[in-house]
């Protein structure tokens, strides 16, 4: 039931805080992550893993990309992210030291199911992240970590995405604990950060809803939108672009900001709308000034810049046409906040164009054919 919301998608975006919170619930003990669900694979095997391959499609694959950053940082295991439908067509190298992690909201996506079956047959350990109890993909896997986003009805995935990222972060912390790669203080602070995400998403929802609604109403004639992000901002850019394609039928592309000068900057002409996901100025890496200089470059060529930036980030103000503020968070956790305005934007622009937000043309909620 929509319960007073204009669409299932609007309702599901409003449930993003709970999707994260419920996915964490019961999975920490004394401030540390412990996933009992991983017992079927076992700590000995998890200690022995020398490579992780994440398989998924669409939005779930973008969640997987974020999982790569977190798992590599915390558990120091190399992670590849592959689209399920590409995975098994080139004789991938798998062994009993490979952990394959599938991600699927529905648990029925045929491309991902076939990839899971392939991985099982090849002798790898297979762990699935799934939002649907008892679905086919978890039944075909060694172990499953369920996301607790609740049923997702709108075709476009929103609350499942933030829940998938949360589950992958929990898996990263569990692996780090098993392998002794993260000191306890850092583990505790990551758990605290994750636990603070639901309230921060609620803040983003409150602050950005009206501004983005208005932005969308101005943009009903827009033909093309670009999204730029760097490091964990890159998958967020891809996710923002996918939502716009599928919901508002607008040509949209997400780029890694560093790639701009290697080609995409040629697309920038006066009036081109570009969303930029800006890393925190507090981040110890030097990415913030680099992304700000990307903004200057595209602004100088007439782009209309909409920056999603940490609140109080004064450096972007002179160069952005609009700034959508997000609360302070550690860099791995920023994507869980920055993605929210982009989910709202896709929905609002589709609604402003008079389109069916919950049932975009040509798409089905679960893709059960290859
Ligand atoms: C995008 C979207 C799709 C799904 C993809 C995988 O908004 O909904 O890209 O994310 O089809 O679906 P699941 O997660 O059910 O395997």
UniProtKB/TrEMBL annotation:
Gene name per UniProt: glmS
Catalytic activity: D-fructose 6-phosphate + L-glutamine = D-glucosamine 6-phosphate + L-glutamate
Primary localization class, coarse: cytoplasm
Location(s) in or outside the cell: Cytoplasm
Keyword Transferase in record: yes
Record's protein name: Glutamine--fructose-6-phosphate aminotransferase [isomerizing]
UniProt keyword annotations, A-Z: Aminotransferase, Cytoplasm, Glutamine amidotransferase, Repeat, Transferase
GO function term, MF aspect, one: glutamine-fructose-6-phosphate transaminase (isomerizing) activity
Catalytic residues (UniProt): 365 (for fru-6p isomerization activity)
Organism of this sequence: Antiquaquibacter soli
Function (record text): Catalyzes the first step in hexosamine metabolism, converting fructose-6P into glucosamine-6P using glutamine as a nitrogen source.
Full-sequence portion shown in this chain: 248 to 617 of 617
Oligomer and partners: Homodimer.
Residues covered by the SIS domain: 42-181, 215-360
Enzyme Commission number, as recorded: 2.6.1.16
